[in-house]
Amino acid sequence: MRKTATLLATLFFTMTALAQVNDYREIKTPPLRKFSMPQPKRIQLANGMVIFLQEDHELPLIRGRALIRGGARDLPAAKAGMAGIYGSSWRTGGTEKQAGDQLDQFLESRAASVETGVDTESSSVSLNVLKGDFDAVFPIWLDLLRNPAFREDKIELAKTQARTGISRRNDEPGGIVGREAGKLGYGPDSPYARQSEYATIASITRQDLLDFHKRTVHPNNIILSFIGDFDSAKLEQKLRDTFSSWQRGPQMAKPDANVKPAKAGVYFIAKDDVTQANIAMVHAGTERNNPDYPALVVMNEIFSGGFSGRLMQSLRSQKGLTYGVGGGVGAPWDYPGLFRLQMATKSETTLEAIAALRGEVQRLVNDPVTAAELSLAKESILNAYVFTMDTRDKALGQRVLLEFYGFPADYFEKYPGLIEKVTAADVQRVAKKYVHPDALAVLVVGKQSAFEKPLSTLGPVTPIDITIPAPPAPPAK
Amino acid sequence: MTAVRKAAIPVLLLMLAATSIGAQDLASFEERTHTRVLDNGLTVIILERHDAPVFSYATVVNAGSAQEVPGITGLAHMFEHMAFKGSDRVGTKDWNAERAALAKVEEAYAAYTRAKSAVTPDAAHVELLRKNWQDAIAEADKHVANDEFSQIIDRSGGVGMNAFTASDMTAYFFSMPSNRFELWAFMESERFRHPVQRQFYKERDVVFEERRMRIESSPFGRLSEQFLAAAFIAHPYGFSGVGWPSDLHSFSATDADVFFRKYYVPANMVLAIVGDVNPAEAWPVIEKYFGRLPKAPAPEALRVVEPPQIGERTVTLREQSQPIYMEGYHRPASTHPDSAVYDVLAMLLSSGRTSRLYKTLVRDQKIAAVAAGFNGNPGEKYPNLFTFYAVPTPGHTPDEMAAAIRAELEKIKAEEVTAEELQSVKTRVKAGLIRQLTGNSGLALQLAIYQTLQGDWRELFREVERIDAVTAADVKRVANATFMDNNRTVAKLENAPKGAAK
Questions:
Q1: How many Å lie between the alpha carbon of B193 and the closest alpha carbon of chain A?
Q2: Rounded to whole angstroms, how far apart are CA atoms B154 and A377?
């Protein structure tokens, strides 16, 4: 009797499990398992240096990074391109003790890397080693952080690379439209839209690089972070012993963003060796530290979030006009972003695509979003939120980010609550406040003779000359 | 019944005895990896990783653009796009009505195509049929629930949803919160159970835009396409992966269905899942949903083999843009015993700042901004190309690149590499494997790719052993057998100032 009951129960269970599901809505979603990603330990030294340590014992690796305030935006306009020369010759130029080539040999034979780089707002010196090599590589990382040599031969190598980049910058249309849209949006004098030239590269000296290093590399300008297979207590002691006696230096100040967007209108760059027009639309955006940010995130998601957003649905899926279209209101952490859209379409549908894209912008401002759109956007953001903290590495990265930009440490915990509160009215309000169809600079890069109609049918067209200025004459000996 | 395959040999332990790098850590990967072949032939790999309630997956289909023939080039990639359009249950407002409407689209398209390709086409009639076809499309579109597949995944918290088509394979992937596992299993199996070619001709336009972007409007894209077309005279590796324009303008939804039915059979597919998944709970769900895919024989192997190259070939593009140089040499498939030697050669020549091409062309002579060589162009399942490329610095020419690369190749053919160089490569390969194991998404794709191309995901780890066994004599021997004039194809893009080109 009991046996039969069990058998029946098993049969029933099996049948339930195997029952056909014909509609995804029939599938039940259990609540997401609660979890808490281990947070890194934060240490602040008396000299202002902040250190984050995150143990991760899954693999025998250790990675570390010194993130230093001060980057490309803090360099003079006349030396545009210096960030790249600095970031590259910092590593290849070696230290006072060892040439870069010697470092290459030492590090690569251990499958280790120590690298330097420069971003808009920061520079960095990182290391990535198998745990057994940590003690051998740490002194190199430290020496490079504090005593780089910027040897002349490697500055010349970096300059050659930079000149190569300049000479090729008009070859790929996607590169042209991205660069020139940035210049239109920020204006030519903004530190966020600078362009290097042969002359600016030629003017960069070794002393410039040493000076920038001296200006930025101070303990109170540095956030250190380490992740991997180490014992935090021991590493903390090692870092305290290494850095505690280092004296403070001057604080970095943020430069003026100097945003002067181009006038609304149509801008054109001629490029004949293409079958597509690359199109961008741009005007000023905002900053992250803006109470409207959560509503803008939801608006961007509705407008251009992945394949479900309006832009991809309309211009790609329904009209077949483009492979990729995207953009939205940009809000960087501590400087003004741009409202920016970009797409490419065949030359013969250029004006059709511009009209369709403009139509979507207009619709965003004019029409309220539907309840279905709002719920899709919010659920997409909230349900995917787990991916912002699903690894120890990401947990560490977030803390470093918040520290760097001076945001509260619980910012990411509170963020989902802010998204939940966003209403359709909020989206409508921020769309009207931050999206201005009449202020858009529309940039087109392509072969106008193949367009279905001349661009002038849209109004006056401002041509942009992207001819690369010739290199300066070599200095007299 | 389900066949359960358990590892007979703890491969990772064996491998790690030779490397002495964190043996226990890596061995745990094998303990956490479970493999099954479903009744319908689908191979499924699950690797448990419970750090966070998320998982990533990759579905790899053992078919890519190398399965195409003239007239349907680009179709593998086209189908990949269509796999986001849903099924008879996802993406439709009324399947019965839509099915009938789609059938009419195909009839109208066939009639239009026939009329268009007549010896003496009747222009007015062709235009009428074209309009009929467009009208039929508009009718079918009325039944479409636009992008429903993507929206369901997005709404459920899916991230990184994408796919790619390569010469050797087609892969689909994204990541999901682990409480959506069953929904994911439904959706992923659904699109391969009964895909529907809805909005096919709009999507064909999208794919053509992709061709314009990647190939036609990009100097590097144009050169690469010409390079492969010149290097292969028989094998489909020479076809444009995104498709030749004629084919992109003509293949039909019916063609895509035929391709799907032939190649997307469970026995020709591998599914790998990495993350917060409990196998005991996951297997019944996998069986329930992926078991729905109908069993069918795996497609027969490709017959054509690229014949030995008997003379050097050169393609020269003269364009407005700055020069680029490429040269390639035929080499055997990745299953060949010398494959590891080629991997070592590629690393010696171009991995890192200690590599020979970097040191000579980039660092010391400063004639190139980039100079490197790599295997597996455009794939590795079949004999393929060891390809070198160089980007000249201002004032330098493709011919200088050729001379400098050849000088390095002659050196590696004449003298054995040093023990130090070889050891450095081997150390980096081992470390590279460990670094590859971070991240669910990348690992899922790697496991599925190795299972597909090599027949066992463990080959990902065995490869390190094979590279460890390579000797300096092997490197010299293989370099001499490969880097020969008659085995070479050159593609160069030369700068011809505007107006100078004819």
A1: 12
A2: 8
User: Helices B472-482 and B419-436 meet at what angle, rounded to 10?
Assistant: 90
**Which tens digits make up the pLDDT trace of B389-398?**
999 999 999 9
Put simply, the answer to whether B89 touches A165 (Cβ < 8 Å) is no
Give the DSSP per-residue string, A131-156.
GGGHHHHHHHHHHHHH-B---HHHHH
Q: What is the dihedral of CA B47, B49, B55, B60, to 10 degrees?
A: -20
**pLDDT higher than threshold 80 for residue A38:** yes
Q: pLDDT, tens digit, for every residue of B453-477?
A: 999 998 988 889 999 999 999 999 9
Query: With contacts defined as CB-CB under 8 Å, which chain A residues touch B179?
Result: 29-33
Q: Measure the CA angle with vertex B26, ends B24 and B29; round to 5°.
A: 115
Query: Between B178, B276, B424, which is nearest A108 by CB?
Result: B424
| Among candidate residues B420, B396, B417, B433, the one with its CA nearest the CA of residue B473 | B417
- The total number of residues written for chain A in this structure: 477
User: Other C-beta atoms within 10 Å of B497: how many?
Assistant: 9
Q: Of A81, A82, A116, nearest to A100 (Cα)? A: A116
Q: Is the pLDDT of residue B13 over 70?
A: no
Q: Which tokens belong to A40?
A: 């890194």
Strand partners, A328: A340
Q: Report the sign of the C-alpha dihedral through residues B130, B132, B133, B139, in that order.
A: positive
Q: By C-alpha distance, which of A106, A146, A162 is closest to B353? A: A106
Burial letters for B456-492: b for 16+ Cβ neighbours within 10 Å, e otherwise?
ebbbbbbbbebbbebeeebbbebbeebbeeebbbbbb
Nearest 5°: the CA angle A340, A342, A345 is 160
Instruction: Name the β-bridge partners of B310.
Output: none
User: Sign of the CA dihedral B346, B351, B354, B357?
Assistant: positive
DSSP states of B174-239 as a string?
EEEEGGGHHHHHHHHHHHHHSB--TTHHHHHHHHHHHHIIIIIT-HHHHHHHHHHHHH-SSSGGGS
Name the maximum alpha-carbon separation found in chain A.
106
CB atoms near residue B9 (< 10 Å): 9
Report ipTM for this prediction. 0.93
The two structure tokens encoding residue B24: 């226990």
Amino acid identity at A319: K
Phi, psi angle pair for A69, to nearest 5°:
-65, 140
Contacts of A164 in chain B (CB under 8 A): 369, 391-394
Partners of residue A313 in chain B, C-beta under 8 Å: 146-147
Q: What is the pLDDT of residues A343-382, one digit of tens each?
A: 999 999 999 999 999 999 999 999 999 999 999 999 999 9
Which strands form B43-48's sheet, in the order they lie side by side? B3-5, B33-37, B43-48, B269-275, B54-61, B170-177, B159-165
Phi, psi of B56 (to 5 degrees): -125, 155
Question: What is the Cα–Cα distance from B11 to B14, expressed in whole angstroms?
Answer: 5
Cα Rg for chain A, rounded, in angstroms?
A: 27
Could you identify the residue written with the tokens 């499958």? A111
* Residue among B86, B415, B221 at smallest CA distance from A344: B221
Q: Taking the mean position of all CA atoms in its chain, how far away is CA B244?
A: 18
Give exposure, B219-246, as e/b (b: 16+ Cβ within 10 Å): bbbbbbbbbbbbbbeebbbbbbbbbbbe
Size of interface A-B (CB pairs under 8 A): 228
Instruction: Judge: B216–A376 Cβ closer than 8 Å, yes or no.
Output: no
Does A35 contact B22 at a Cβ distance shorter than 8 Å?
no
Which DSSP helix (H) or strand (E) runs through B347? helix B339-350
The distance from CA A357 to its chain's CA centroid, rounded to whole angstroms, is 24
Nearest residue to B390 via CA among B399, B400, B403, B401: B401
Distance CA A341, CA A312 (A): 12
Q: What span, in angstroms and rounded, lies between the C-alpha atoms of A432 and A246? A: 51
